[in-house]
Amino acid sequence: MLTRLVMLRWNCTIVIYTLYTLDSVGDGGGRERMNLSIAHPKILRKVSRLSSFQFTQYSHSSNSLPLAAKHVVVCRRRVPFPASFSAAAFLSIAESAHLKRPFNNSVPAVLVFGDSTVDSGNNNYVKTTFKSNFPRTEGTSPTEFPRGATYVGIKEYVPPYLDPNLTLEDLMTGVCFASAGSGFDPLTAQLSGVISVQRQLEYFKEYKAKLEAAIGKARTKTLISKAAFLISAGTNDIVLNYFATPFRRETYNITSYQEFLLEHVKQFIQGLREEGATVIGLVGLPPIGCLPIVITVTSAEADGERRCNDSLSSIALDYNQKLQKMLEAMQNSSSSIIYYADIYKPLNDIIQRPSRYGFDNVNSGCCGSGLIETTFMCNPGTLVCANPSKYLFFDSVHPTQAAYSFLYQALRPTVDRVIKIHDL
Q1: One of 115, 170, 237, 395 is an active-site residue; which one?
Q2: What span is annotated as the signal peptide, if there is one (predicted)?
Q3: Does residue 40 have an active-site annotation?
Q4: Hey, where are the domains in the chain?
């Protein structure tokens, strides 16, 4: 068995991340699985002086990405820890705490699907390390940009569908089906032990049946037809599945894998339409080569300088272009309205001109070392930067609240069109 280990010292706390294990099997092949674990610091007293992380690299194939970089100091001054932003969504960043949209007389509910960019807590009810249960600490509660559908004029928070305490009002005004770590490729969710997009669709059908039982089929049909559907997924498929594991690369090159993903996107949208959805918004991919975790693993293979991997970002851009073309074709073949939300351009603009937006750091996260931490690695006990608002990324994948506010402003015209669609 070959194991990749990453050892970190956080102010006298040693953490071991088992990122990759390769188990031998009888036929001489291999079976890989993702595994994450933390060792208690008392067990590691003998190595308590370690101040950087190292790893043993094993490449299954020539184009696989290593999972960490050598000799990166990770100790950081302890400051209060704000909430995880893995559940931040674009509709979850409102213009101000007191702002409501008086013109929204037609969208009764917001229904959300996808990955960690929009998971408001479903993974808290799933046996996985990808949780969304990190509360805000004192002094970090948002006053300017509350979560939820405040701007849409419905409610301040889109609750997770798996919450057992949902009320009928919650169901009628919208819920979130998203699951952190998920993707359009069923294997992506399987690797992370989370809810696949396909399973999210089944949950939506279950949700619809609950509404029909409570308010009748006619009212449910009207509500669903006027609801706004938001889908945000795809990054995990490429970053955490295709390039981080060998499974899909054994069958697909990156071009054919993009087509594979797009077919799953198409099937998912068709599934929503068959259930009555008429207003659907789908978020494209960000410049994935600029995510801190990607910068970390790719800069280690180059000269060590932290900069965006343009070749990987170009893959995301190419995917987005194909996605838009496919959505246009789907739009022309039905009466439903499908919107494409571009986050690549605004996020890339921030990365290229950070000072214009007030950011000092755009290539590492605020949490921990800022190089590889995400999910449970960022929690109330984790060291964080002193001023998250100066960072583009909160962890190694997800933007900060300050970044989401700019992304929201860039997407606001699209949001407004969705809200007003039934008034046209």
Answers
A1: 395
A2: 1-17
A3: no
A4: 2-58, 90-423
